[in-house]
Specification:
about 250 residues, alpha/beta, Rossmann fold, 8-stranded mixed sheet, 12 strands, disordered C terminus
Length: about 250
């Protein structure tokens, strides 16, 4: 089984839609996916992901099924650098989150007090249970840290969603701390993460990332990937950093 996780196009957050650039990205994605077999698709309920799915599947006879848990991972917390002001949970400064050893622990990163206060574990478990239910419907049942192949297959399943929640899904499939993925990786709008099942012994399955943040659809059409969720390379940068991508 192949799971492809697709981030929405360059977002217009105010209107929960896509910018003109994001629409061009999603249209290019659609032309690329036209030749990629997809057996089933699922989509976040948010507008920017829904429009990306609509344009991305425009050349296919395939209607995505909406899954509420695919929405952006949204708990708000009080970050150490700005107490009293709520921040999205997956955006910390490196010197703050790395100072807490529990953030590197796959089982206990949610147990840090600021995470408990933001009810992060509850939302994490909602997403975890959602992806496990979906995978079981497609033939793979969670058993401890791996999966059992109840109905092994070569299907391709697409998820149209968001950066934050995609890393939550990956952290569960790969058994690693979500904080490490949130702060160590970045995927451009409409980029594709490909994850395959690996069944080297009968019935025993793990998931392996085959490609991460791929943008072949943008490359072949000469579209520069957006820098959303990628911050400045050097302090004081303007041209290549996050703020520039909003202009």
């Amino acid at each position: 089984m192949r799971l492809i996780i697709i981030r929405h196009g360059d977002p217009d957050y105010v209107n929960d839609s896509l910018t003109p650039r994001g629409r061009r990205e999603a249209e290019a994605l659609g032309r690329y996916l036209k030749d990629i077999p997809i057996d089933k698709a699922y989509v976040s309920p948010l507008g920017r992901a829904a429009l990306t799915a609509e344009l991305g599947l425009a050349h296919k006879d395939l209607v995505p099924e909406m899954k509420p848990w695919l929405r952006e991972f949204s708990p708000l917390i009080d970050r150490p650098d700005s107490p009293g002001r709520k921040h999205i949970v997956w955006d910390w400064l490196p010197e703050d989150w790395t100072a807490e050893p529990l953030f590197f622990d796959k089982d206990h990163w949610c147990d840090v007090p600021v995470m408990r206060e933001g009810h992060v574990r509850e939302e994490y478990e909602w997403v975890r249970d959602g992806i496990d239910t979906l995978l079981e419907e497609h033939g793979y049942r969670r058993n401890g840290l791996i999966y059992e192949s109840v109905r092994p297959n070569h299907d391709t399943v697409a998820l149209f969603c968001h950066l934050g929640v995609s890393y939550v899904i990956l952290s569960h499939l790969l058994n690693v701390s979500t904080m490490v993925l949130w702060h160590g990786f970045s995927t451009a709008p409409t980029s594709i993460i490909s994850v395959y099942t690996e069944e080297r012994r009968p019935g025993k399955v793990s998931f392996r990332v085959n490609s991460f943040g791929a943008v072949p659809h943008l490359e072949r059409e000469g579209i520069e990937p957006s820098k959303r969720a990628r911050y400045v390379e050097c302090f004081g940068d303007d041209e290549t950093g996050f703020e520039k991508s909003f202009k």
